[in-house]
Design goal:
By secondary structure, this protein is α/β, with parallel strands linked by helices. It is built from 16 helices and 16 strands. Strand 10 and strand 11 form a beta hairpin. The longest helix is centred in the last third of the chain and has 19 residues.
Amino acid sequence: MSDETMSEYKVSILPQKGYYKNQIAVNMLEYFDREGYNFEGKVVLLKPSFVMPSSDPKITLATDTNNSLIAGVTKALWLCGAKRIIIAEHRTIGPARYAFYAVEIKSAVKDVKNVEFCYLDEVKMVKTELEDPLIPDYEVKYPKLLLDDTVDYFISLPKLKMNIYTQVTLSIKNNFGLISKKERLKYHSDEDLDEHLASLSLIRQPDLIITDAIIAGEGQGPHLTTPVNTGMIVCGTNPLAVDTVCCNLIGVDPHSIGHLKILQERGLGPLELDQIQIENEEYFNSKKKAFSIPDEALEMTPLMNAYLGDKACVAGCVGMLRGSLDSYASEKGWYSMGKLNIILGDVEIPEEELKKLDKKRTIVYGDCAKKYKKYGIYFKGCPPDYVKSLLKMSFLGPLGLNPNLKLSRVSPYKYAKAWGLHILQRIFRF
């Protein structure tokens, strides 16, 4: 490969051994200067990940883009003369406003005056199609401000972590937070999820990726990640090159990641390290560690009995339900759940066996298992909405209140305030 192509696929490793926003700002200023960025008078949109909105660092440390990284990048952009810095994210639990309140990002960036907060569930979305779609009749509502001339620089700030649905969360997966929950769930299956993620990247790619790999997350991401100190920020302009480097950092073959493979076949970038120029490669190699991968099993004790059909999607119902169960197990252990039956997917179960099931201890999960809904607590959807499922399981299910819904993790005041302002904004567009 030529030196010219190698420079096109350059990924910079910025050593960063802690979440110190001023130190991060200096690190980013030096990087911007080396790479020749000019943000003077520009409008910059930052897309972090607030997938688990909480002010509890035990929950967010290895799951969300850290506030200190966002604050450091924001400060560096301000010092570079950026006219407007927009921090944008869509909803996960409750309206998008709640995520911003819960993670307390406003206080983290309060010393930068030209920061704006963009709640993507309150801005104009445009129906968007692809000329050569990966999914037949593919259509998605995409933020208008990323399709017109509003934004000069689109910067993605993903969190490096494992993911039960797609194996990894990197810059391509971070684009999922640009669209609504309804649009995300529309193709959240083994058949379509990777194509869905790849399609979003074909609409618009970030101009720059700044990956939070200071503390990364292994294991049961995105719901219950385990922190790993990887001590770096990973930067680059080509999403496949950046994601390939991140995969190699954590012992994952990028060719095994469906959405990365699809985009490589579309010519968006490389999946081979020898095609990428890595700045600080020696430091990068010293931090490599094979991460533990997500476990998708649903029978975690002899007391748990799962009936799984052919259409039991790991990227859909299996992942959603396992994420819910993980949060219960994290607090009291798997055996605390006692006897539990799970029906999931298009499965055939003899009538005499169904009659033996305790309805109060049986979870019927997803539309494929709908025909068995009278035999347990039924969760509707393909896949079911994760938050609605948490609520139903907490108040009607056999396991009690989910730890993720406890007052120590969810602020009722912030939640009510977010919904109130969200509704007012939708009505009056103030």
